[in-house]
Amino acid sequence: MDESGAFTVATYTEGDGAPVGEYILCFEWPSKHPISGTFDGGDRLGGKYMKKDESPHRVTIQAGPNEIPKFDLKGVPKKGKSAEGGGLFGGDR
Known about the structure:
two-stranded antiparallel sheet, globular
């Protein structure tokens, strides 16, 4: 994903897209550990969007170019901050 939130789906090789079909979407927004710099600080969405059996988010991929809709996800609030937000993933950035 780039700074604007744009991304390219890859299945087998970079940029090859996804096979035609319907998909259940699950989301994770990993936190960056403040010391190590690795993404092992937990899911900022609190795991609310990780279970495929509970996900209301679906997308159908057709042959040719596809546009993935924007999903309004709510993050887990940090102390003193609101989890409300827009954007592709919502929440604090």
